[in-house]
Amino acid sequence: MQRAVGVFIGERAFCPSFQLKDGIFHEPVLDLFQHAMTLKVPHNVFGAWMVSALPGQPGSRPVDQLGNVPQLRDALGALADRYRPVE
User: Fold this and answer.
1) Per-residue confidence of the chain (87 residues) as pLDDT tens digits?
2) 36 Cβ partners below 8 Å, 6+ apart?
């Protein structure tokens, strides 16, 4: 469970269903989430990114492109540059 994507709303934590495939954790999502944590992208920002259109690719969301993890890792890096918390 430590690898699971968590989205926090108020005092509650939710685990989005996009990280499951056939009832088990979907490895591409877990890989992207681990990469997001390395880049210090907040959980909620990552969750929103997974279901939002990719820049320059209207109608194409990361959750729909899980067969292309290298491209998504690059897109996640660009997201991190915009949303990484200031240290």
Assistant:
1) 456 676 667 777 666 666 667 777 778 888 998 999 899 988 888 888 988 898 887 778 998 888 999 999 999 999 898 876 666
2) 46, 76, 80
